[in-house]
Amino acid sequence: MKKQTLLLLAIILLGLNLRPVLAAVGPLLDRIQLDTHLGHVGASLLTSLPIVIMGLGALAATFLRGRLGERRGIWLGTLLIAVACLARGLLPQATPLLISALLAGAGIAFVQALLPGLIKARFSHDAGRLIGFYSCAIMGGAAFGAALTPWLAQWLGWSWALATWAVPAIVACLVWNRAAPADEPAAAQAAAPLNPWRSPRAWLLMAFFGVGTAGYTLVLAWLPPYYTSLGWSAEASGLLLAALTLCEVAAGLLASSLLARCPDRRVLLGVVLVCLLLGLIALVLAPLALVVPICVLIGIGIGALFPLSLVVAQDHLDDPRQTGDLLAFVQGGGYLIAATSPLLAGLLRQYANDLRLSWLMMAAATLVLMLMATRFKPGSGRFHTRGG
């Protein structure tokens, strides 16, 4: 197998391993809470904590690249994901579960902080589309985690069902170890300094990514429990999340393939945000009667919005290292924003016992995203000067 093809395979495998550790929890959450005595807020931390760590790790991307390098940092991150999954089988109690969430978040953070810059550097001629496909692999991993884990839990118990996701993470480690290119010398990485912290445009991109990803994390954490509260089984709610995630993958692939034909990203953003808004409204008004349209609409909205948010940010720069730094800032702050949505939903469920309020809040946030998207006119806001 050619080195470049093996590297592409490794990137897809890495993407597939970045979400099962999160998506596998939702369909089993009621069972986990019953056995571990976690409350609704504590249960929400199983999703929120990794996302917080993902955000902090992304903000530290430059430091991680300097201290570990891309090759070793990505390998270490994938190994941490495997360790976190295995720990859930060995220690299925509340505190170890929360610690495993922190470990998983750190592992995901390492990979997400370092891999986009490597993609931009190694595939500069087609980086936008490849980042789109990598994003789709991430969502595909979530689909596998949501669909397969409840069925595995019937045979292995919920703790070892969660632990089985260590296996694909170990496979990704082995493939990455063979495929990863050597880190470039520091001199080859030198570029004009970029300081996104002082750029209003960078903050806009970060807020857009964060609010959009908040919809993804909210659905990931609370859609299965929402439907189990309506009478569905854990297996059925897991399949629903998996089906929705497959819609996300299809939408992400379609959006990525249309990028060359849509230099004005606002066209695609408008379509996907309308789909997301309609799906959230239906989720509040008729969650059982309209379950199929909800699955399709929210899947299209979330699935296309995630890669488009990254591509819109990437459009602002040409230099790979500066692009990596900007994407690290956007994802870092964005994931910190996104981490609040499962936690807020857990608080609302604990005190109001009603998840519909969370869907309504996300619908309002989607309207804000529509206004923000109007700012992304082609060629506007590019980083031409030192410091962004």
UniProtKB/TrEMBL annotation:
<feature type="transmembrane region" description="Helical">
    <location>
        <begin position="325"/>
        <end position="345"/>
    </location>
</feature>
<dbReference type="InterPro" id="IPR011701">
    <property type="entry name" value="MFS"/>
</dbReference>
<dbReference type="GO" id="GO:0022857">
    <property type="term" value="F:transmembrane transporter activity"/>
</dbReference>
<feature type="transmembrane region" description="Helical">
    <location>
        <begin position="39"/>
        <end position="61"/>
    </location>
</feature>
<keyword id="KW-1133">Transmembrane helix</keyword>
<keyword id="KW-0472">Membrane</keyword>
<dbReference type="InterPro" id="IPR052524">
    <property type="entry name" value="MFS_Cyanate_Porter"/>
</dbReference>
<feature type="transmembrane region" description="Helical">
    <location>
        <begin position="291"/>
        <end position="313"/>
    </location>
</feature>
<feature type="transmembrane region" description="Helical">
    <location>
        <begin position="202"/>
        <end position="224"/>
    </location>
</feature>
<feature type="transmembrane region" description="Helical">
    <location>
        <begin position="73"/>
        <end position="91"/>
    </location>
</feature>
<feature type="domain" description="Major facilitator superfamily (MFS) profile">
    <location>
        <begin position="3"/>
        <end position="381"/>
    </location>
</feature>
<feature type="transmembrane region" description="Helical">
    <location>
        <begin position="267"/>
        <end position="285"/>
    </location>
</feature>
<keyword id="KW-0812">Transmembrane</keyword>
<feature type="transmembrane region" description="Helical">
    <location>
        <begin position="357"/>
        <end position="376"/>
    </location>
</feature>
<protein>
    <submittedName>
        <fullName>MFS transporter, CP family, cyanate transporter</fullName>
    </submittedName>
</protein>
<dbReference type="Pfam" id="PF07690">
    <property type="entry name" value="MFS_1"/>
</dbReference>
<dbReference type="InterPro" id="IPR020846">
    <property type="entry name" value="MFS_dom"/>
</dbReference>
<feature type="transmembrane region" description="Helical">
    <location>
        <begin position="97"/>
        <end position="119"/>
    </location>
</feature>
<feature type="transmembrane region" description="Helical">
    <location>
        <begin position="158"/>
        <end position="176"/>
    </location>
</feature>
<dbReference type="InterPro" id="IPR036259">
    <property type="entry name" value="MFS_trans_sf"/>
</dbReference>
<feature type="transmembrane region" description="Helical">
    <location>
        <begin position="236"/>
        <end position="260"/>
    </location>
</feature>
<feature type="transmembrane region" description="Helical">
    <location>
        <begin position="131"/>
        <end position="152"/>
    </location>
</feature>
